[in-house]
Structures are given as C-alpha cells and as structure tokens.
Amino acid sequence: MHIEIITPDKKVFAGEAISATFPGTEGSFQVLDQHAPLVSTLGRGDVVVDSGAGGKQTFTVDGGVVEVLNNQVLVLAEAVV
Amino acid sequence: MPSLKEVRNRIVSVNSTQQITKAMKMVAAAKLRRAQDSIVQMRPFARKLSQMLSTVSATADAAQTSPYKQVRIVERVLIVVVTSDRGLAGAFNANVTKATMALINEKYAAQRAAGRVEILAIGKRGSEFFNRRGFTVNGTYVDTFTRLSFATVRQAAEEIMKAYTEGRYDAVDVVYNEFKNIATQIIRAEPFLPVPEQAETKNAVVNDYIFEPSEEEIINELIPKTLKIQLYKAVLESNAAEHGARMTAMDKATDNAGELLKELKLVYNRSRQAAITKEILEIVGGAEALSAK
C-alpha cells in the first residue's frame, strides 16, 4: 500500500509500506495492506511505517487524521516532531 | 543655481538610496518566491482536509453540535489583524488597518462604543496602530513572520478557539491581505467564528468508510483543524502579499530615484558649464584690459 504523511508545512513521508501503526484517539491500531476504507482521528503519539525490507520508520505526530481508501493511506498530521 | 558641491552631494545620496531600494526589491523577490512555495505546500493538506470534512458530513447529519458553530448574541468581538512586521511596503499595512477600522465602525459600532472590541495582532504594524488608538491589543503573536511556520499560527488559532468556547468573545473576524499577484492585494475581512453555515455539498462521494471514533466526534475534531488551516492560509497569503507589495513599492522607488538622478545630473552639468563660461569670460576680460594699455 502507498502511504503519505503530510503537514501544512511540508510532505514528511511518501512511499510503499506493508503495514503502519497509528496512535488513534481511541487507542493504537494497525493498518495492513488492502485495508477497508477508514477515517480516524489521531492523538499524540508515534506513527510507525513498516516498509518490509526497508525497515521501520517512526514519526511522532501531534494530532491529526488518517484516511485509508483504495490502498492509499493519507495521514494529515498537524505537527511532526 | 545651487553650487557644484551641493549638487554633487545630492547625487551621491540619491545614488546610495537607489542602491538600497534596489537591494530591498531583490530581497523581497526572493522572499516572495519562498512565501509562494509555502502556500503551494499547504494546499494539498487544506484540500484533503475539507474533502474529508465533506465526506464525513455527508454520512452524518448531526453536524450542528460543534461548539464552534454556536451563534450567540454578539457582545464581545475579537478582530484578528494580519499585517507585516516591517514597513516600506507601500500602502500594504495602511490598507489592512483602514479596512479594520471600517469594519469596526460599520459592523461593530455598538460593541466599539461599549469598549468591547479587542484586537489580536499578527504583525507588529497592526499592533502599533491599534495600541495608539486605545484598543486592547493582544500582542502575543506580533513576531510571527521572522520564523513563519504552522506551529505558531496553530498556537494562535488554539488560543482564539479556546477563548471563543469559553465565551470570552462572541464573534471573531479576520482581516488580511490576500495575494492575487505581485502588484495586486485584495483586502479580505472574513468571519472566523462562529463557523459560517455553508451550502452543504451533498454530492460528495460516499464510500463505505469505517469511522473511528463516531462520525460526530470526527466532525468535531475536523472543524478546529480546518479553522487552524484557515487562519494559517490567511497568514501565508498576507506574507506573500507583503513581499509582493514591498517589491512593487521598491521597484517604483528605484525608478523614481533614477529620474531624480537624471534631473540632478542636468543641473550639475549646467552649473559646471556656467562656471567654466564665467572663468573664460574673466580671463578674456583680464587679457583685454592688459593689452589695451
């Protein structure tokens, strides 16, 4: 799946991944390949992008929203620390 | 006719002024490009966010619960004035402050008479202007433009929204310059809070989304986010407009200095020529007086 993390200032990450973990406001959750359409709000915490062979990357976000649609994951983060 | 030395001094001083204005124009051009870049950077985020808001509102009907949509009787007003930190940008700041005064006198005359109009200044110029006129000015965010980023604007937006939900203000307006092109700025005075009712676009594509948490809660989360982006957009637009305005102002100043230099050179050459003619006449006159003896 394709994942993008953007803030109002810049694009923080864009690339392929096999799974990603998000700090949802109701608790942490994971999104795998071919996930059903989803919209969720994010709290403060770590977004972990696992790109398989490329290893894991961690981004600390402070509030935001995530949308999953047609195997595209879009994270709108207010701030990435 | 002014003496040669005077004219020469003036030429030197006009010359150095021209160099300064030329340099300022160049600096403004570079900063303008950066300001435009950050507007472009912000656009996908803003577009996606409003798209998301409309998809979620299309599936949920209870969008009216948000505290930011509460319309109250307007007693206390906050006006966010976005100006620049520095001058020498033509009528840029004067336009904003004038528009703000007009807004206060027309829309909020009663609140003004009761002394219940407050100003939140983004940019030093606006803060100075309204301080002089005896308004209560919140100047926490005057120095936003030296390091412009979403983080500072977000703080300001959060403070405004908090004050609104606590009932410290009943209406919040934003006045700023919108960047149209380098030579043109459009003054905007927009209501910020309560969130104006929009003609709902119900034709948004409804996908079978899983909402986490519920639609209502997501909407209530999305509204403050779009508000922050709205304020950020106003600040970015104003920033680009400021550099555009400074660029045109400095361009004109450089042209004017050039014209002034031309005139001064003419005066200089004329008085130099007059001095030479006078000297020759004196010499000829002296020689004639000698030979006549």
Outline the fold blueprint:
The complex is a heterodimer of chains A (81) and B (293).
Chain A: E1 2-6, E2 11-16, E3 19-24, E4 27-32, E5 38-50, E6 56-69, E7 72-77
Chain B: H1 4-59, E1 77-82, H2 92-107, H3 109-113, E2 117-122, H4 124-132, E3 136-138, H5 150-165, E4 171-181, E5 184-193, E6 210-212, H6 215-291
Parallel strand pairs in B: 1-2, 1-4, 2-3
Antiparallel strand pairs in B: 4-5
Second CATH tier, the architecture of chain A: Sandwich
CATH architecture of the domain at 60-196 and 206-245 in chain B: 3-Layer(aba) Sandwich
**What is the CATH domain class of chain A?**
Mainly Beta
Order of strands in the sheet with the most strands of chain B? 3-2-1-4-5
Please provide the ordered H/E string of secondary-structure elements of chain B: HEHHEHEHEEEH
Residue-averaged pLDDT of chain A, rounded? 91
Radius of gyration of chain B: 29 Å
Output the strand order for the largest sheet of chain A: 2-1-7-6-5-3-4
Q: Over the alpha carbons, how many angstroms does the gyration radius of chain A reach?
A: 11 Å
Fraction in helix of chain A: under 10%
What gross morphology of chain B would you assign?
elongated
Q: What name does CATH use for the topology of chain A?
A: ATP Synthase, domain 1
Q: Helix tally of chain A? A: 0
Give the helix level of chain B as a range of percent.
55-70%
| CATH superfamily label of the domain at 60-196 and 206-245 in chain B | ATP synthase, F1 complex, gamma subunit
Please report which band the strand proportion of chain A falls in: under 5%, 5-15%, 15-25%, 25-35%, 35-45% or over 45%. Answer: over 45%
Write the CATH homologous superfamily of chain A: F0F1 ATP synthase delta/epsilon subunit, N-terminal
